[in-house]
Design goal:
By secondary structure, the chain is of the alpha+beta class. The chain is built from 21 helices and 35 strands. The chain has 5 domains: 154 residues, Jelly Rolls, CATH 2.60.120.430; 196 residues, Galactose-binding lectin (Jelly Rolls, Sandwich); 134 residues, 2-Layer Sandwich (Phosphorylase Kinase, domain 1); 178 residues, Orthogonal Bundle (Transferase(Phosphotransferase), domain 1); 67 residues, no CATH class. Strands 1, 2, 3, 7, 10, 13, 14, 15, 16, 17, 21, 24 and 27 form a 13-stranded mixed beta sheet that branches. Strands 28-32-33-31-30-29 form a 6-stranded mixed beta sheet, with helices on both faces. A 4-stranded antiparallel beta sheet has the order 6-11-8-9, with no helix packed on it. α13 packs antiparallel against α16, α17 crosses α19 and α17 crosses α21. The longest helix has 20 residues. The chain is globular and about 80 Å long. The relative contact order is 0.07. Bound molecules: 2-acetamido-2-deoxy-beta-D-glucopyranose (7 copies). One 2-acetamido-2-deoxy-beta-D-glucopyranose binds next to loops. This is Receptor-like protein kinase HERK 1.
């Protein structure tokens, strides 16, 4: 045993020795450093920021001007002060276009210093900055009071050029003081990280776009770009310490070891690892054992990638130091023994990646190091560095096909050679983000010998939650053999086709145990389909909800791409509204269906660590089971894919024209609120029972949204209600319903309610329908408004229930109609009121 270890250790030692002289410094293929608005080049720490006045990659536009800072003294004390002496000001939408030599990951760094100018007050400027693919800054306002603002993004560029757009807000200007577009090593961000809340593995980070929000050197001074091989800045941690008295700074001047394949100076400079914050010496006998916590203010509603950098520079011997790490008070890793993770070595670089979601309503992100509760461990703990990156700053997709050619060059020529984790349809589609990196992309990864070093180190203690995960497919659904599905569908009998979509055909099938299923068979020739197929089989099994269509299994035998879903007896909602001779649904049935689908969407948006945006909400994608229970279907699969740049738009326009969020269309920026918009259109369909676009009608009637909103805004929605239900809708219920639809259809996403709010408002509309039944209770509305705190409570209960995925006790509750809960509350409240009277 001991011998094996010894040999392993020796092998590793030789391995390290072997590679120690091979490490080629990273040379960025693209390296644009620009001093904007300047007439002269500016050199900062041997990096030349080129004047942009005469350079060709500034798109010709009449809308930009240069400005000099007339009070240079205002910046003299700042770092890189000479970058802030000039600015380029944009009075209208303008762009820079940078030729990209090597597609793949890049840093985009933006520097702003808002000085007073006789023509424009930059302090009050407000603007957005975007690339072809992503919105980097939306309605950004620089910090006032002569302070600089610095923004850094990690983006994938899959084009031959990068277009950086500056768009001023109305009555404002945009400006930029300096900027950098610099290639980044492809393997700096790994594809997987541990999800703190669920302890699951987050996959797909390689395709994410990030904004770097905090980068800290613990226990030591600020590290300037010139001391970092990637010109990064590492700030001191002091101001973020919640209680500095329980922390202590330590430093170390001996050697720091990187592990080839797992870390390098590009991970972080040695300076970061040679200092650390540790738990201040504590007297355990008197119970004086404290956690050290750093607290950060972050934007809510996003996931964050948190990278902790460690290097045991305090232990005198192996296995001396054990500690725990927490993020937002949740355990991230416990009983960390850095010396064991580093295969029995000290002062070796280790980092761990975690994904945490910061839900809306909270702006706090805290990172804590605390003593281990392991017996005999002296209470101590350390942290050397910390990076916090906001995930998903993204917009529309990019083409991976167009980038494959240059990838080959990259693989041959790049020192890191790891370009090309190709950026499928980047990021607009949250669902895609969870997709694993497929095998065939492995060829562009670093050579396996390097990976070997990596895995050896990290695998030696997998329980710590390090960044490498080899587990895949652990929670995908049941795998069918093709024979079973041939039998179930009578060998894909055309007579059993119940739907045809971009992906392929959907067949009705019956399994041997007589369970009815819907069998969706993808076209095996479509590469796009393959990506979507994997997205769906990995995403769907994790999403279990009464109001989402369940995936029963899949089949990938013989290159088939088949998905097997529960069969929905009553088909889609649209066919029950118009275009068929199915019996009309009553108003209450329609409301229940709206409530059910809203609940399904609300779950998609909030039920997992990462919001999932459906993107194709329409009445044809809301399916009904034999009891008319609504289930949302077709998520993740409908579009996406490499040729997004072209097909996506036209597919979306064809398939969902009339439902498309105009803001998404304008800005190419997808949020949950786009689903809310589409849902608003569905609500109008439900009330008017007509197609969303009907070119046979008069011009003002063609578009259901325009037409419906005209009547709604006039307060006359009742005039256009489906005549089959007009008689049984209570006016207040209709009014509420109309108001919700109108809010959902607001022009700007920020003005639209969340799906959770839509949900409880629909419950309210249902309640109005029910309570009004008794004419004696005319002031039920007043009662309802008085119990609004209780409604709030229900809605937060609903939220927490929705988040309790997979917990059966909570799932049981989903069968309980929320409207029943409401009526109980309302009754309780009116009883109480009567007593008071
Ligand atoms: C600035 O540097 C660039 C690239 O090094 C060079 O081509 C250009 O002539 C310089 N411009 C000035 C004004 O010195
Ligand atoms: C900025 O200053 C330079 C010389 O310092 C001058 O040539 C240029 O005209 C000034 N630009 C503006 C917009 O004032
Ligand atoms: C620019 O705007 C800021 C904030 O409104 C104000 O404090 C400052 O005085 C303004 N400066 C000028 C020159 O108008
Ligand atoms: C450690 O040093 C840094 C930089 O000098 C400082 O910001 C921080 O407050 C120090 N921490 C403690 C606990 O003294
Ligand atoms: C810890 O506290 C106890 C009680 O105050 C004291 O007797 C002991 O000397 C302290 N130990 C250290 C290491 O400070
Ligand atoms: C450290 O913080 C974690 C998470 O909040 C908590 O569970 C633990 O009890 C704390 N430990 C100490 C010693 O305060
Ligand atoms: C965030 O931190 C601030 C300051 O410590 C605190 O007042 C606030 O309650 C925290 N918010 C949440 C949601 O935890």
């Amino acid at each position: 045993m001991a011998e094996t270890f010894l040999r392993l250790g020796l092998l590793l030692f030789l391995f390290l020795l072997n590679i120690s002289d091979c490490c080629i410094a990273f040379t960025p293929a693209d390296n644009y450093l620009i001093d904007c608005g300047s007439l002269t080049n500016t050199t900062i720490d041997r990096r030349v920021f080129v004047a942009d006045t005469s350079l060709s990659w500034r798109l010709k536009t009449p809308k930009d001007i240069t400005a000099n800072n007339t009070r240079p003294s205002s910046v003299s004390s700042l770092d890189s002060a000479s970058l802030y002496l000039n600015a380029r000001i944009f009075t209208g939408a303008s762009s820079y276009s940078f030729p990209i030599r090597q597609q793949g990951k890049h840093f985009i760094r933006l520097f702003f210093f808002p000085f007073d100018n006789q023509d424009f007050n930059l302090t009050t400027s407000k603007f957005s900055v975007s690339t072809q693919d992503s919105t980097l800054l939306l309605n950004f306002q620089p910090l006032p009071d002569s302070t600089t603002s610095f923004k850094e993004f990690l983006v994938n560029i899959a084009h031959d050029n990068l277009i950086l757009n500056f768009v001023p807000a109305r009555n404002s200007v945009a400006f930029i003081s300096a900027l950098e577009v610099v290639s980044m090593p492809e393997n700096l961000i790994l594809d997987t990280a541990q999800i703190v809340k669920t302890k699951g593995t987050f996959q797909g980070l390689a395709r994410e776009q990030f904004e770097m929000v905090y980068r800290l050197n613990m226990g030591g001074p600020k590290i300037f770009p010139e001391s970092d091989t990637l010109s990064r800045t590492w700030h001191a941690d002091g101001v973020f310490l919640v209680d500095a008295s329980v922390a202590k700074n330590v430093s170390y001047s001996g050697p720091i070891d990187y592990v080839k394949g797992a870390s390098s100076p590009e991970t972080a400079p040695k300076l970061v690892y040679s200092t650390a914050a540790v738990l201040a010496s504590q007297n355990a006998t008197v119970g004086g054992v404290f956690n050290v916590t750093w607290k950060f203010s972050v934007e809510s509603g996003f996931n964050y990638l948190v990278r902790m950098h460690f290097c045991d520079i305090v232990s005198k011997a192996l296995n001396e130091l054990y500690f725990n790490a927490y993020i937002n008070s949740l355990s991230a890793a416990s009983n960390i023994d850095l010396s064991a993770i580093a295969s029995n070595s000290l002062h070796t670089v280790i980092f761990m990646d975690f994904v945490i979601d910061v839900p809306s309503g909270s702006n706090n992100l805290s990172v804590t190091i605390g003593p281990s509760n392991m017996n005999n461990a002296d209470p101590d703990g350390l942290l050397n560095g910390l990076e916090i990156m906001k995930m998903g700053i993204s917009g529309s997709g990019t083409s991976s096909e167009s980038s494959s050619k240059s990838n080959i060059g990259a693989i041959l020529g790049g020192a890191f050679g790891a370009i090309a984790v190709l950026i499928l349809a980047v990021v607009i589609f949250c669902s895609i983000r969870r997709k694993k990196v497929k095998k065939h992309e492995g060829k562009s990864f670093p050579p396996s010998s390097i990976n070997g070093g990596n895995s050896h180190i990290l695998e030696s203690k997998p329980c710590v939650g390090t960044t490498i995960s080899f587990r895949q497919n652990t929670d995908t659904g049941y795998r069918f053999s093709i024979a079973v599905l041939q039998e179930a569908t009578n060998n894909f009998d055309e007579n059993l086709v119940i739907g045809v979509g971009g992906f392929g055909k959907v067949y009705k099938g019956v399994l041997r145990d007589e369970m009815k299923v819907a069998v969706k068979r993808g076209n095996p020739k479509s590469q796009q389909g393959l990506n979507e197929f994997h997205t769906e089989i990995e995403l769907l099994p994790r999403l279990r909800h009464r109001h989402l269509v369940s995936l029963i299994g899949y089949c990938d035998e013989r290159n088939e791409m088949i998905l097997v879903y529960e069969y929905m007896e009553k088909g889609n909602l649209r066919s029950h509204l118009y275009g068929s001779d199915l019996p009309s649904l009553t108003w209450k049935q329609r409301l229940e269906i709206c409530i059910g689908s809203a609940r399904g969407l609300h779950y998609l948006h909030t039920g997992s660590v990462k919001a999932i945006i459906h993107r194709d909400v329409k009445s044809a994608n809301i399916l009904l089971d034999e009891n008319l229970v609504a289930k949302v279907s077709d998520f993740g699969l409908s579009k996406t894919g490499p040729e997004l740049g072209q097909t996506h738009v036209s597919t979306a326009v064809k398939g969902s024209f009339g439902y498309l969020d105009p803001e998404y269309f304008r800005r190419q920026q997808l949020t949950e609120k786009s689903d809310v918009y589409s849902f608003g259109v569905v609500m109008l369909e439900v009330i008017c029972a007509r197609p969303v676009i009907d070119p046979t009608l008069t011009r003002e009637m063609v578009n259901l949204k325009e037409w419906g909103m005209t009547w709604q805004q006039r307060g006359e929605l009742d005039q256009i209600v489906d005549p089959r239900i007009a008689g049984d809708i209570k006016p207040n219920s209709l009014r509420k319903f109309g108001e919700i639809a109108e809010k959902c259809l607001a022009d700007f996403g920020v003005e639209r309610p969340s799906m959770g709010d839509v949900l409880w408002n629909l419950e309210y509309a249902m309640q109005l329908q029910e309570t009004e039944a008794d004419d004696a209770e005319v002031n039920s509305i007043n009662n309802i408004s008085k119990i609004s705190p209780q409604i709030e409570k229900i809605s937060s209960f609903e939220r927490s229930y929705d988040r309790g995925i997979g917990s059966t006790s909570l799932n049981d509750l989903s069968d309980m109609s929320m409207s029943r809960v409401f009526s109980q509350l309302i009754k309780a409240d009116s009883r109480h009121k009567q007593n008071l009277d």
